[in-house]
TrEMBL record:
SUPFAM superfamilies: Cystine-knot cytokines. Residues 176-294 form the TGF-beta family profile domain. Belongs to the TGF-beta family. It is found in: Secreted. It comes from Vespula vulgaris (Yellow jacket). GO terms for cellular component: extracellular space. Pfam families: TGF_beta. GO terms for molecular function: cytokine activity; growth factor activity. Keywords: Disulfide bond, Glycoprotein, Growth factor, Secreted, Signal. Gene3D superfamilies: 2.60.120.970, Cystine-knot cytokines (2.10.90.10). PANTHER family: INHIBIN BETA CHAIN, TGF-BETA FAMILY. This is TGF-beta family profile domain-containing protein.
Length: 294
C-alpha cells in the first residue's frame, strides 16, 4: 500500500481487499461505516469555541469516492469526473471527536466489482466545509487506514486516531475451509465435533461500549470421546495414547477423555475506552476452530 497518497494536497484513504483466507461464497455486506476523528488543532481554539457562540457554528463533512488512478492533481471538470459524492454530515463544533459515515452502498458496490479480481483499492476523500484552519480531520497520521471486517480476523496498527472502516457482513455467509475441523452438522451421531455458536454482544448488554463487531462465532465442542476405537494417528501425542490404553483397562477409575478445543484463533474488538477514546485490540483464543479428543 502507498502511504500518504494525496489528491490536490489532500490525503486519500485507501482500503484494500482483505488478504485473508477467501470465503467459499461471496460475503453479504449488511452495513459499512467509516469512522474518522475531527478535532481542533490547538487546545486554546477548542476552549475558545466551547464558549459563547460555539453551539451555533456548524461544519459539514463530505465523503467522496475517488477514481483517479495515480493522478495527484485534478482541476475543474476533470475533478468532478473523478469524484463521486458518497455522503455528508453536519457537525456542531461543540460536538467534535469521532464521527461516523454510512458508506454501505459504495463499499458494497466496490466489493461486488472486485470479488473475482481484488486489485482495486477503495479510495475515499474526506473533505470539510467551514473548518477553516482551526479544525483538523485525522487521516493517515503517518499510517495507512485499515478495514475492520466483523466476520473476519482483522489486523491493524496502533495509532488511536487513524480512520477506519467497519464492515459488517452476514455471518452465515462466511464459510472457511478448515482441515480436520469436524463440524457437528456433518458428524456421526455422538462424535466429538465443533458446534457453531454465535455470541451477540447486544444480548450480553455490551453493545453500548463495543463498536464492532456486533457479535461473532465463538463456537464450542460437544460429543463423546470414550466410544469407538481410536487409531494411534488420532492422538495428539504418545502420552495421550498411553493414558488412553490404561483407561480402557479400567486402571484409571473415573477418568474420561473430553471433547475439547484443539485450535483457537484471535478476534479483533473495537470499543470505547477512557475519555471516549476508540481502542482496537486483538484478543487471543476467542474463536474455537477445531475440536478433538486430546
Amino acid at each position: 500500500m502507498v502511504l500518504g497518497r494525496t489528491l490536490n494536497g489532500q490525503p486519500l484513504l485507501e482500503f484494500p481487499m482483505s488478504s485473508g483466507e477467501p470465503a467459499l461464497e461471496p460475503l453479504r455486506i449488511k452495513r459499512a461505516t467509516l469512522w474518522t476523528r475531527v478535532e481542533f488543532r490547538q487546545a486554546h481554539h477548542y476552549q475558545h469555541h466551547r464558549q459563547g457562540q460555539s453551539n451555533q457554528r456548524n461544519i459539514t463533512l463530505w465523503v467522496f469516492r475517488v477514481r483517479c488512478g495515480n493522478t495527484t492533481h485534478l482541476r475543474g471538470k476533470e475533478l468532478g469526473e473523478h469524484l463521486e459524492m458518497v455522503t455528508f454530515l453536519g457537525v456542531n463544533v461543540g460536538q467534535l471527536g469521532w464521527q461516523k459515515f454510512d458508506v454501505t452502498k459504495v463499499v458494497s458496490n466496490w466489493y461486488t466489482a472486485n470479488t473475482n479480481s481484488p486489485r482495486d483499492k477503495l479510495t475515499l476523500l474526506v473533505d470539510c466545509t467551514g473548518c477553516g484552519t482551526h479544525v483538523h480531520v485525522s487521516t493517515f497520521g503517518g499510517h495507512s487506514p485499515h478495514v475492520i471486517e466483523s466476520s473476519l480476523n482483522p489486523k491493524g496498527a496502533q495509532d488511536p486516531d487513524r480512520p477506519f472502516l467497519v464492515v459488517r457482513t452476514d455471518p452465515a455467509a462466511v464459510k472457511r475451509v478448515r482441515r480436520r475441523a469436524i463440524e457437528c452438522s456433518g458428524a456421526i451421531k455422538g462424535q466429538c465435533c465443533k458446534q457453531r455458536f454465535y455470541v451477540s454482544f447486544s444480548q450480553l448488554g455490551w453493545d453500548d461500549w463495543i463498536i464492532a463487531p456486533q457479535g461473532y462465532y465463538a463456537n464450542y465442542c460437544r460429543g463423546d470421546c470414550a466410544a469407538g476405537h481410536r487409531t494411534p494417528d488420532t492422538f495428539l501425542n504418545y502420552y495421550t495414547h498411553v493414558i488412553e490404553e490404561y483407561r480402557k483397562m479400567d486402571r484409571l477409575a473415573g477418568m474420561q477423555p473430553c471433547c475439547a478445543p484443539l485450535k483457537f484463533s484471535p478476534m479483533s474488538l473495537i470499543y470505547y475506552g477512557p475519555d471516549s477514546n476508540i481502542i482496537k485490540r486483538d484478543l487471543p483464543k476467542m474463536v474455537v476452530d477445531e475440536c478433538g479428543c486430546p
